[in-house]
Specification:
With 89 residues, the chain is mostly beta strands. Helices cover 0% and strands 30% of the residues. It starts with a strand and ends with a strand.
Length: 89
């Protein structure tokens, strides 16, 4: 998956898209073993940071999205596009 680097401070998704900030990976296992960076799996849980305007219906009206800013979501492991805003992924 490609990473897109942007030099802007804010980003507003369009339509029925959302912007998710990925939660940090676990540093150690339940048994207390510390994991190196190469052994960590990509997280599939994140927090919704921005929400688009919604899906446009056939009659031109918008259908609001079910998620809102601050919700925790589970997403596909290889879904979406990784972006970098300033120093933050």
């Amino acid at each position: 998956m490609a990473t897109l680097s942007l030099a802007i401070s804010s980003l507003k998704p369009l339509g029925d898209r959302i912007l998710v900030k990925i939660s940090e990976a676990e540093e150690k296992t339940a048994g207390g073993i510390f994991l190196p960076d190469t052994a960590k799996e990509k997280q599939q849980v994140g927090e919704v940071v921005e929400v688009g305007s919604g899906k446009r219906n056939d009659d031109g009206s918008y259908q609001q999205l079910e998620v809102k800013v601050g919700d925790k979501v589970l997403y596909s492991k290889y879904g979406g596009t990784d972006i970098k805003l300033g120093s933050e992924d």
